[in-house]
UniProtKB/TrEMBL annotation:
<dbReference type="InterPro" id="IPR052736">
    <property type="entry name" value="Stf3_sulfotransferase"/>
</dbReference>
<protein>
    <submittedName>
        <fullName>Sulfotransferase</fullName>
    </submittedName>
</protein>
<keyword id="KW-0808">Transferase</keyword>
<dbReference type="InterPro" id="IPR027417">
    <property type="entry name" value="P-loop_NTPase"/>
</dbReference>
<dbReference type="GO" id="GO:0016740">
    <property type="term" value="F:transferase activity"/>
</dbReference>
<dbReference type="Pfam" id="PF13469">
    <property type="entry name" value="Sulfotransfer_3"/>
</dbReference>
Length: 437
């Protein structure tokens, strides 16, 4: 079994960038901290990045990229653009905070946080809840570009001048060219509800980097750090986004990203009154799907991807997330948590959502029409099924079952029935005579 290959578009883009570098038409920017910081200051005309805690994970990430990621020309080019975008955003955010002190005064009370492994149904649950206008949520263009540009609320020729949705459309169009499977794995659009992983990236923090680049040293360094500064900055960006949306600060935020499984202590330090919805799924599916998601991004940016290494890393990472979550839950009051199974939403989404709304002490009635509209819209977004297998990444069902047996028992997460290998007599049809056989 072999995982899918990348799109020919990437080979064409690599050749174009190589030629541009050689002729000087495309400048090859160094992925070095001082260069990137100075360039952002020069481009933005600003020099205040806020809390400089982010510079340490940034340095570790850059070293890991240089030593381990094996970036191709397209990977180097896109990495420089990503770092520059994030740094300019930090500079502009500080200007907003300075010019409008009311932003940081906005309360964030009783957020609803969905916590679960990658591919455990967090997106589906998040978007069902986001259909309810009683919650505030991020839209995809806001996680790509959390910080609005000056004058973003001006109306020109009857339209708001915010350029961020158009930027998001271009990025998504390029992503589909780079790997059309991305639409199947995580269907989205500029205005679809989206997770806050991009807000953590603003602090050079989180698994987004690990899912797109092979950076194991960075991953393990982050796993040993206190993430509180990244979550404090994330909270300030949420305040900025809520202010830019002109929504009431009384509306609870709806949050979700698998990163929270690793960082629950930091999350609860910053949001002590959060209500937590934990999602669960058969670990065989979790590991295979997570490895597939990472693989389909890694092959865009590197010419030397190794499916065995990708599989091993996401098996380890998924197991660590589950362990960290179980450890953290020992000190969280049961009244603040609820568990929701992927299969329960598959079988009876309405019954599962009624149970969630009971936990949140809300009437589900006002949200039902919007939820049904979301389900209808999402069916159109998903163009083809996400196909993957553990075997593509050198992992067996038995190994996953053994390593996640405690998780399965603790949260009553059943493993799916094994698919038996075809029998040597599978070609025989009932009713055939021995002569026919």
């Amino acid at each position: 079994m072999r995982p899918p290959r990348r799109s020919p578009f990437i080979d064409l883009l690599n050749a174009t960038i190589r030629a541009g570098n050689k002729t000087g038409v495309i400048e090859k920017a160094p992925l070095q901290r001082e260069y990137l910081l100075e360039k952002a200051v020069s481009d933005a005309g600003l020099n205040d990045f806020g809390d400089n805690w982010f510079e340490t994970p940034m340095e570790v990430l850059l070293e890991s990229l240089a030593d381990e990621a094996h970036l191709n020309p397209a990977g180097e080019w896109s990495a420089e653009k990503q770092f520059s975008h994030v740094l300019r955003g930090r500079l502009l955010a500080q200007k907003w905070f300075r010019d409008h002190p009311e932003i940081l005064a906005r309360p964030i009370s009783r957020p609803v946080v969905i916590v679960g492994p990658m591919r455990s149904g967090t997106t589906r649950l998040h978007r069902l809840l986001a259909a309810d206008q009683r919650f505030s949520h991020l839209r995809s263009f806001e996680t790509i570009s959390p910080v609005p540009q000056p004058g973003f609320q001006e109306v020109i020729e009857g339209k708001i001048s915010d350029p961020r949705p158009a930027v998001a459309r271009r990025i998504m169009a390029i992503a589909r060219l780079a790997n059309p499977r991305t639409l199947s794995i995580h269907p989205t659009g500029p205005f679809e509800p989206e997770e806050e992983l991009g807000l953590l990236v603003a602090s050079m923090w989180g698994m987004k980097h690990e899912a797109q680049w092979r950076v194991p040293t960075y991953a393990r360094w982050c796993e040993g750090q206190d993430a509180t500064p990244a979550y404090q900055y994330m909270a300030n960006l949420l305040r900025l986004i809520g202010w830019s949306q002109q929504t009431s600060s009384n509306r609870p935020w709806l949050l979700k990203t698998p990163q929270h499984m690793l960082d629950l202590p930091a999350l609860l330090k910053v949001f002590p009154d959060a209500r937590l919805i934990f999602t669960h799924r058969d670990p065989v599916k979790l590991v295979g799907s997570a490895a597939s998601l990472a693989w389909n991004q890694t092959i865009i940016y590197s010419d030397k991807p190794d499916p065995q290494k990708v599989g091993r890393e996401w098996l380890r990472k998924t197991e660590l997330k589950v362990q960290r979550m179980q450890e953290a839950r020992q000190s969280i009051l049961d009244s603040k948590t609820i568990d929701v199974h992927y299969d329960d939403i598959d079988r009876d989404w309405l019954g599962a959502m009624k149970r969630v709304y009971g936990f949140l002490e809300l009437d589900i009635g006002p949200a039902l029409t919007a939820m049904k509209q979301y389900l209808s819209r999402s069916a159109k977004l998903k163009r083809r099924p996400h196909r993957y297998s553990l075997g593509e990444f050198g992992i067996t069902d038995s190994e996953v079952r053994e390593r996640f047996s405690n998780y399965s028992r603790t949260f009553d997460v059943p493993f799916e029935a094994r698919t038996a290998p075809p029998s040597q007599f599978a070609h025989i049809k009932i009713g055939q005579s021995l002569e026919q056989i």
